[in-house]
Amino acid sequence: MRRVLAAAVLATVLAGCGAGAGTPSAGPSAIPGADKLVACPPTESRPPVSNGLPDITLPCLGSGPDIRLADLRGPLVINVWAQWCPPCRDEAPYLAAVQKKAAGKLQMLGIDYVDTRPELAVKFALDRGLNYPHLVDREKLVRTPFKVGGPPVTVFVDKDGKFTLHNGAFTSQQQFEQSIKDRLGVSL
C-alpha cells in the first residue's frame, strides 16, 4: 500500500515538472514584458451560439485567465495577427487608434497567431500601443473557423456572439471604422 501511495505522489510531483516548465510557453511571467500587456479578463461561461465563435480556449499572452472564445459577445473586434507579418505591422496603427476611440462602445481582443517568438509578439503589441488583451494561438486552432490563410484576419462579433470576417489588412483608418459601423452598428 505504501508503494502505491508513494508512486502516486511521485507521479503527481513529476507531472508538475513537465517539459514546458520554465520556458516561454510555460506562461506570461517567463516572457519579458508580458506583465506590461493588458490582462485578459475573466469571462462569464455561456453556451456556444449557432453561427457564433468557436468553442476554443486560448491562453492569454499577458496575464490573466485563458479565454474560451464561445463565451464572448460583442460588440467586439478580434484581430488575428503575428509580429512576423508585414501587413499586420501596416494596420497596427488603425487598431491602436480604434482602441483609444472605442472606450465604452466596443471591446477589442488580439490573437497572436502561430508565433514562435512570444517575446517579439509582446514587444510588437507594446511598441504599437495595442492596449487591449491578447491571446495566443500556436496550434492554428482558429484557422478553420476564422478562415485564416495567413494573418491578419479581423473578426467582428455582434451582441449575440455571431461573427463576420475581414481577411487581409485594412488599408486606412476610415476603411476600418466604416467596417465597424457597417458590421457592428458602432460609430466611433
Indicate the low-confidence ranges by residue numbers: 1-28
Largest β-sheet summary: 5 strands, mixed
Structural class by helix and strand composition: alpha/beta
> Care to count the β-strands?
7
What is the helix tally?
4
Average pLDDT, to the nearest integer? 85
What's the helix-strand series?
HEEEHEHEEEH
Oligomer: single chain
Please characterize this protein's 3D structure:
By secondary structure, the chain is an alpha/beta fold. 28% of the residues lie in helices and 16% in strands. It has helices spanning 2-15, 86-101, 118-127, 173-184, and strands spanning 57-58, 67-68, 76-81, 107-113, 134-137, 153-157, 163-167. The protein has a five-stranded mixed sheet, with helices on one face.
Helix and strand topology:
Layout: H1 2-15, E1 57-58, E2 67-68, E3 76-81, H2 86-101, E4 107-113, H3 118-127, E5 134-137, E6 153-157, E7 163-167, H4 173-184
Parallel strand pairs: 3-4, 4-5
Antiparallel strand pairs: 1-2, 3-6, 6-7
Q: Key features?
A:
4 helices, alpha/beta, disordered N terminus, 5-stranded mixed beta sheet, single chain
In short:
This protein is α/β, with parallel strands linked by helices. The protein has helices at residues 2-15, 86-101, 118-127, 173-184; strands spanning 57-58, 67-68, 76-81, 107-113, 134-137, 153-157, 163-167.
